[in-house]
């Protein structure tokens, strides 16, 4: 059986932390930024942890990075 390939699209969007949790970026930070509040844009810059219901699926996609 060949090795499972990493889904590159998922690997570019998600990263594993040292403890095995999955980090993700926030949405809504690509365009129309002049209409968003400064406070909103500042909060969207930070990363967030993936919800526990999605962790199993994303770990399967990004493999053992």
Automatic annotation (TrEMBL):
Keywords: Ribonucleoprotein, Ribosomal protein. Belongs to the bacterial ribosomal protein bL35 family. The keyword NAD does not apply. GO terms for molecular function: structural constituent of ribosome. This is Large ribosomal subunit protein bL35. GO terms for cellular component: cytosolic large ribosomal subunit. PANTHER family: 54S RIBOSOMAL PROTEIN BL35M (PTHR33343), LARGE RIBOSOMAL SUBUNIT PROTEIN BL35M (PTHR33343:SF1). Residues 1-20 are annotated as: Disordered. One of its GO terms (biological process) is translation. Gene3D superfamilies: 4.10.410.60. InterPro entries: Ribosomal_bL35 (IPR001706), Ribosomal_bL35-like (IPR021137), Ribosomal_bL35_CS (IPR018265), Ribosomal_bL35_sf (IPR037229).
